[in-house]
Amino acid sequence: MTQLSLSQVSLHYGSDPGAPAVLQDISLTLRRGEFISVIGRSGSGKTSLLNLAAGFIAPSAGRVSMAGRPVSGPGPERAVVFQEDALLPWKSVLENVALPLKLAGMARAGRRDKALHWLAAVGLEDQGGKPVWQLSGGQRQRVGIARALAADPAFLLMDEPLGALDAMTRDQMHELLLRLWRASHAGALLITHSVEEALFLSTSVVVLAPGPGRITLTEPCSWGRRFLAGEDPRALKSEAGFILARERLLSAIREGRDDPRAVAA
Ligand SMILES: Nc1ncnc2c1ncn2[C@@H]1O[C@H](COP(=O)(O)OP(=O)(O)O)[C@@H](O)[C@H]1O
Ligand SMILES: [Mg+2]
């Protein structure tokens, strides 16, 4: 089965070997059909971890691999959705979604069909002709997600894609993201600072503690799958199990100290 793996990965920025590690001994495997969220304080290395998985940067030690082969750079099977939408504002919504397909050499008719399909999947079928600058923040993020999925990626890597949205739009986006994840059969990696978002969406949530970034807790979850099976989202989020898991994650985030040696001293 296709999987994207980080094995005993450490990361230092720059060439100074004495510089503190940003990530230390991270092992994480994402399979298609899984949804892993990474939460942790600002500066704990979440974006660095996603950039390693995307192939934008290489680890200082350890291995990043996909389907058993080393990852040596970005690739179309790993689509990325950024925190700030990375759309071309003067181009139409449809052109933005179709752009990666154009770059991949797909014929015009095929890329139009595919782009229209994913625009409909994110509820923007009527907006294809508009320039991106006319859309709201939530709509832009939906265009970014449609663009990512249009290339049929095996993995969808998202760095706080909903961070700038208001609470109501976020809740709607959660339900949409779960449906898109199911429809795409991709493995999803989501960086977020919202514990509730992570719990509701994921098949497992990983806590990253800072200084150096390391995994301190992995929490398996099934609320997203139960939502997709028809259960009521508000009832799921008020279950005792959900609230207990939220407290475990919040404690793990609170306990992570900047430097474990400083605590020991
Ligand atoms: N390109 C870079 N060069 C040097 N240091 C960086 C770079 N990117 C991030 N860092 C540092 O690495 C640490 C982790 O950053 P980041 O991965 O962005 O964390 P997070 O996304 O959890 O906030 C921070 O201390 C940050 O300053
Ligand atoms: Mg970040």
TrEMBL record:
Determine the domain of life of the protein's source: Bacteria
Q: Tell me which SUPFAM superfamilies the record gives.
A: P-loop containing nucleoside triphosphate hydrolases
Q: Look up keyword Nucleotide-binding and say if it applies.
A: yes
GO molecular function terms attached to this record: ATP binding
**InterPro entries, per the entry:** AAA+_ATPase, ABC_transporter-like_ATP-bd, ABC_transporter-like_CS, ABC_transporter_ATP-bind, P-loop_NTPase
Q: Which PROSITE patterns match?
A: ABC_TRANSPORTER_1 (PS00211), ABC_TRANSPORTER_2 (PS50893)
Keywords on this record? ATP-binding, Cell inner membrane, Cell membrane, Membrane, Nucleotide-binding, Translocase, Transport
Regarding protein family, the annotation reads: Belongs to the ABC transporter superfamily.
**Know the name of this protein?**
ATP-binding cassette domain-containing protein
Domain ABC transporter intervals: 4-235
Point out the coiled-coil segments of this chain: none
